[in-house]
Amino acid sequence: MTVLAGGICALALAGAGEPASAAPPGPTVVAGTVTYQDKAGTAHPARRSFVELRDADGSPDGTVVASGFTSATGTYRLSASTRRTDGTARQLFVRSSARALGYHVYEPGTSRVYRIGSTPVKATGAAQTVNLKPAGRNSNHNGAFAIADALTSGAAFARTVAWGKVPDVRVSFPESATNYRANRINVMAADRFDWDVILHEYGHHMAQKLQIAPSVGGSHALFTNLSVTHGKDVGVRLAWSEGLATWLSITAQRQQGVAALQVPNAGDTRYDDPEKNYRADIASAVGGTAKGEDDEAAVARTLWQFENNPAFAMGRTALLTQLLSAKPTTLSVALPGLMTAAGARPFTDTAAGDPAAAAKGSEIACAIDDFAFSPALTRPAGDAILYAEPPELAWTAGGAGPGNPLEMFVVEFWDENFTTVLYTSPPIAGTQWTPSRTQWEELLNATDNAGAKADRIQVIVSGTGSSPTTGPYNSCAQRQLRPHVTITPAATDGRLRPPAYGTCASFEANGGIGGSPGLTVSGTRLRPNTDYELVLHRAQEDHADVQAFSLTTDAAGAIKTVTKEIPAMPAGDWQQRLRERHDPGKYVVVEGIADVLPWICWEATAARDLITITSWGGMGAAPSGTAAIEWTFNGRHTATADADGNYSGLPHQTTCNGQGAVVGYFTVETLDGTGALYRSAFCSAARGGPQASFLEPTP
């Protein structure tokens, strides 16, 4: 083992010299491996490093007799003639430099590329093995070769993106800070083993040469609204530049299979900068929360989604192709082209267009929803129900943080499959909106391309910022469900009446009255595990709502078919509303009217020419309304209804006056008018008896 100047070690094993009488020797082959150490002290091959075989012939630095690059495993094999032209034996040594196709790592302020070498060994024609490695894990030479190995992967990635368009980059190490300035990467000593950081700076080099990000410069950090320090105009451009460089660093390592090299913190989806305490995953929310369009973390994570999210079906190549074509300067400028390239409807397109593209646009909005530059619906939360009353919608603004939020919004309502825009709100300056009743009814009555009311509606908030203009960005769509509720009379004759009262109750006990107070209810697409109540409402507002009965949905938001009775109540046409018990303002107007019919019943006995009405009454009258029986020969008899519409009249008699029968004119005042009918009463006991009838009101 020979120690060279600068603390560089080399191992040289020479073959034995040839006898004086031997024939001139053939070429001498020199082979070996070049390695360096990572931050943990583990040896790694110095891949694709430039290697020279030199002859220490007395000239400065010797004469280069062969050169090449190490392999992917750090090995090399060079050969040269054993003797010089004057017949003397060559004194061969090997030199490896921290440079390759794509980069050169220099000592600061000099033109000297970092290099390591062996001591000269006399060439004899026998093979020589020379392994090279820098002396000391913490030496600058070892750091330079560690940087070089990272750049080997970066440069190889650049060649796959745009062959010949990314020139070599000069790297100065060690410097006081790590950055990219004037076509040069500066690396401080603390970052020499940090592949993510080194390739982030190389990402700036790529982006500048390929014109896919501006050269902005300025202080920056992950999970920070850069507009706070730099203003929005610079902040969003700086975030794009830095976020793109971070994504390029991570995607280059993954494309090059760096994880297999087992270099600490290299080849995964996390951006690691130990000196700044960064350990941020760009493939998830681990490490920090993105803050908006002026946050480089939001940019990097958005690009990751476009590259890797299966729903986008885009991939790295298509993504880079789009960036090379569009040459965007901000995330806002980049998004429309990226979405179009992914087969999605961009946020800038307000027309319905291709449903599949609109659906994919919604998927993209949901995938980037957590990065805080898009609006996010907060109320109603989750799958909402399309109730009859207009809801208050609220959302977070998005944009470039609290100081530069998005300012103008529109709310779009689509059918479930994004074939039709059902309704678009007027522009909204703020983060909440309650539609007017007219606007809400227009939405509820809107139909899709097939002419049907949508059972499921997708709600999107689209927002735009100013100074400079950014967006529009769309929220993740929130699904709102139109409940499907069916309510029908339970009676086989289809007649709905209040519960039997008084005389009618005795008739019902003997099966002598038609109709039923029962309603059969079923429903779906309601809120799961929620108590509802059926309320009957008068559109004329001439009576208080009647709470009919309560129901509870199951875990799927359904009401299994069930029959329940309405309470005592006035007859009339009633609108049916199913409302949440804990929040009466949330209700569904069920199609169809509950037509509650008034009933009147009487019992009579007959003897010769006299009829005795032993009891009479009914239900369904208007509160305090009058029910009356007027017989042909015996005047008018009345009863007054109670608050629930029930009434009972007094017994009375009427003569048949020798006619064998009399006619009774029955009337009941209801909310919808007076119901009336004629009925005959027979004086023959064989043909007399109880009767019950419903009355159709005449407005």
Please outline what is shown here:
The chain is an alpha+beta fold and 699 residues long. 19% of the residues lie in helices and 35% in strands.
What labels would you give this structure?
Immunoglobulin-like; 4 domains; 699 residues; rod-shaped; 6-stranded mixed β-sheet; disordered N terminus; single chain; alpha+beta
List the helices and strands and how they pair.
Elements: E1 2-3, E2 9-13, E3 28-33, E4 35-37, E5 43-45, E6 50-55, E7 63-69, E8 75-80, E9 91-97, E10 99-100, E11 103-106, E12 115-117, E13 121-122, E14 128-133, H1 140-161, E15 169-175, E16 179-181, E17 184-188, H2 195-210, H3 227-230, H4 232-255, E18 270-273, E19 278-281, H5 296-308, H6 315-326, H7 331-341, H8 355-367, E20 376-379, E21 384-385, E22 393-396, E23 408-415, E24 421-424, E25 432-433, H9 437-444, E26 456-465, E27 470-474, E28 478-481, E29 484-489, H10 503-509, E30 518-524, E31 531-537, E32 546-552, E33 559-565, E34 572-580, E35 587-596, E36 599-607, E37 610-619, E38 626-631, E39 636-640, E40 647-649, E41 652-655, E42 661-670, E43 673-682, E44 691-694, E45 697-698
Parallel strand pairs: 3-14, 11-15, 15-17, 21-28
Antiparallel strand pairs: 1-2, 2-14, 3-8, 4-5, 6-7, 6-9, 9-12, 9-13, 10-11, 16-17, 18-19, 20-22, 22-25, 23-24, 23-26, 26-27, 26-28, 29-30, 30-33, 31-32, 31-34, 34-35, 36-37, 36-44, 37-40, 37-41, 38-39, 38-42, 42-43, 43-45
Helix pairs in contact: 1-2, 1-4, 2-4, 4-5, 5-6, 6-7
